[in-house]
Task: inverse folding
């Protein structure tokens, strides 16, 4: 399970020109605000149609990503800019992560979640590798 956390000096991602979000559910939301609710820690699962976090109690959350912090790198990687730590994280299926953010209420979708993804959704604002 490879996960690398390296400091970033590059600007946040923007949606311009991005046409492939892969299995990511993505909302149009800037990274200016940080919600502090804990989504929990668990195992990141990157499937063909959605990304989830499998919690220790067995629950599975559908992860929703903000376009200002996230990039899909085919065929199987997520690059996430954590604005709290200032690190750019490269994530793969099976990584153990902890997410912070908020439960989703309404969203301007850039890439909607697929119907087969879990109905419980969590918007990722921060991400750490415990």
Result:
């Amino acid at each position: 399970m490879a996960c690398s956390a390296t400091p970033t000096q590059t600007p946040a991602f923007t949606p311009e020109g991005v046409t492939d979000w892969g299995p990511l559910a993505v909302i149009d939301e800037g990274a200016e605000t940080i919600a502090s609710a804990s989504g929990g820690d668990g195992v990141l699962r990157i499937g063909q149609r959605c990304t989830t976090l499998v919690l220790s109690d067995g629950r599975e959350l559908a992860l929703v990503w903000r376009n200002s912090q996230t990039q899909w790198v085919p065929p199987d990687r997520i690059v996430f800019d954590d604005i709290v730590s200032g690190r750019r994280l490269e994530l793969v299926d099976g990584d153990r992560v902890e997410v912070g953010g908020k439960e989703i209420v309404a969203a301007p979708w850039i890439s909607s979640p697929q119907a087969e993804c879990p109905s419980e959704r969590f918007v990722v604002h921060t991400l750490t590798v415990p």
